[in-house]
Here is the input.
Amino acid sequence: MSGTIIKEGSLEAPTRHALDWKSNDFYDQNQLFDELERVFDLCHGCRRCVSLCNSFPTLFDLVDESSTMEVDGVDKKDYWKVVDHCYLCDLCYQTKCPYIPPHEWNIDFPHLMLRAKASKFKQGRVTKSEKILSSTDAVGKLAGIPIVVNMVNSANTIKPIRKVLDKTLGVHPDASIPEYHSKTLRKRILNDSVEDTVIRATEETTGKVAIFATCYGNYNSPQLGEDMVKVLRHNDIPVTLVDQEQCCGMPKLELGDLESVAKAKEVNIPVLSKMVDQGWDIMAPVPSCVLMFRQELPLMFPDDKEVQKVARAIFDPFEYLMLRHKEKRLKTDFSKSLGKVAYHVACHQRVQKIGQKTKECLQLVPDTEVLAIERCSGHDGTYGVKTKYYDTARKIVRPVVNKVKQFEPDYHGSDCPMAGKFIEHALDDGSSTSHPISLLRQAYGV
Here is the structure.
C-alpha cells in the first residue's frame, strides 16, 4: 500500500509562524484566494469549529447551499462574508483545530482571516465609520472632554440620536454603548514612590507593577483601574502608571490596518521596554491588550528584541496575583464572601494559555462558589454594537446568558469589561456586571 497517511492532530507542540505581513505575497489577491479556498475546503471537511464564531456557520451554509455542495461551488466574492464575521478571537487555533502547525496542512485560520482583512484594508474597501470606531484613543479623548462628555453620554441614551448613529456609524440603536469619563484613570491614580519601599519579588514577579491603562480602562471604566490599584496595594505591591501610552493596536489589527498597529507599537514599546529595564512588571486591565503585547506584536515583529522583552514582562492581573500566591505573597485576609459568582472567561484571556487564574483566585474567598463559563460573549470590541452584526452577536451570547440565569448568581462578570457589559445588556434583568478585580477588592473590604 503506497501513499502518505494524513494524521489528524499531532503529539508535537503547536508552532505559531510569524506573520509575514511586509511581503508582497501577503497581499497578492490570487495567492490569498488560493489559500482561502484550500483552508475553507479543509474546514468544510472537519466542521469542528461550528460552535465558535459565526465565520464557520457562514462558510458551511455557503458550501451546503452551493450547486456542488463543495467549496468549489461557492462564489469567491462570498468568501468575504466569512472573513467579516471573524473577530480574531484565536479560539479556533488554540482550542479546536487539529491541523495547526506542525501538521502538514498548516492551518492558521485567524492569521488567514487577518491577511484577508489586511488585503481588504489596503484596497481601500473599509468604510470611514469602521475607521472611526476602531480609533478608540481619538474617540475617547474627544468624548472625554469636560462638558462634551455629558453631552455624549446623554446623547447615547436618546432614541432619535441613536438612529442617527445607526445611519452614520452603523451602530445599532439598541446596542449598549459604554459611558465616557472626563476624570480618566490617568487623572485618578498617583504613582507610588519605591525609594523607601520594601519590594518583595518572587521567582516570576518583580513585586512592582506598571499599569498600561488601555483606552477602555482610561476613558470608559476608570473605576476598574482604581479597583486594580487598590487590590495590588493591599498586597504590598507598589503601583505606577505607564509614563506614556497609545492604544495597544488591537482595534486596528481587527480592521486589518497593520500600518497603524506598527505606529502604535513604535509609541508604546520603547516606553514599556524602559519600564521593564527599571524593574517594573507590566499589567493591563483588559485581556485583549495583554494579548496584543504578549502574542500579536511578537508575531508581527519576531526579530524585535524590545517587543519580545515586553511580551515576557506583561501579565494578566489574576495570573500575576496567583503567581504571587504560589509563593505565599498574596494576602487572603478576606472580610466578605462573594456567594455565587457566574464568571465569563474572556476569549482573549483563554488563548493566553494561563489557565483559569481568575476562578482560582476568587475561590480563595471563603464561602464563594464560582461558575466559569467558557463561551464567547459575541461582543468583541465593536462587533456587538454594529448594526449588521448585532443580531448575530445576540445569538452568540445566548448560551452564556442561559448559563448565568440557571446558576442564579449573586454576581456575574467577565475579565473583559466589554463582554461583561454585553452579557448584562443581553440579560436585561436589571442586574449589573461586576468585574472580578472589583469583586476581589470588595472581598478584601478595601
Q: What stands out?
A: The mean pLDDT is 90. Residues 185-322 form one domain.
